[in-house]
Design a protein that fits this description.
Blueprint lengths: L2 E5 L7 H5 L7 H8 L7 E6 L4 E4 L19
Parallel strand pairs: 1-2
Antiparallel strand pairs: 2-3
Length: 74
């Protein structure tokens, strides 16, 4: 089975910290990247250098706002 793998990395303890890296794709950019693949291909996340894998379901997707992280210092 061929699948699309997102090799993810941890870059912070909050979305606000991760945003500082300016590496997250926008929804439009993600759609553009994925549009080159067969629409029926499965998508998985690879974590810990391929030690564990995960998947996405509609129940996993939520829209949120940034919140202050208590221990975060600028």
């Amino acid at each position: 089975m061929r699948y699309i793998k997102f090799e993810t990395s941890r870059i912070g303890y909050s979305a606000e910290q991760a945003e500082e890296w300016k590496t997250a794709l926008t929804v439009g950019e993600l759609i553009e990247v994925l549009s080159q693949y067969d629409k029926d291909r499965k998508v998985f996340f690879s974590n810990d250098d391929g030690y564990t894998y995960g998947s996405i379901t509609e129940d996993c997707i939520e829209e949120e706002e940034y919140t202050e992280y208590e221990d975060y210092e600028e």
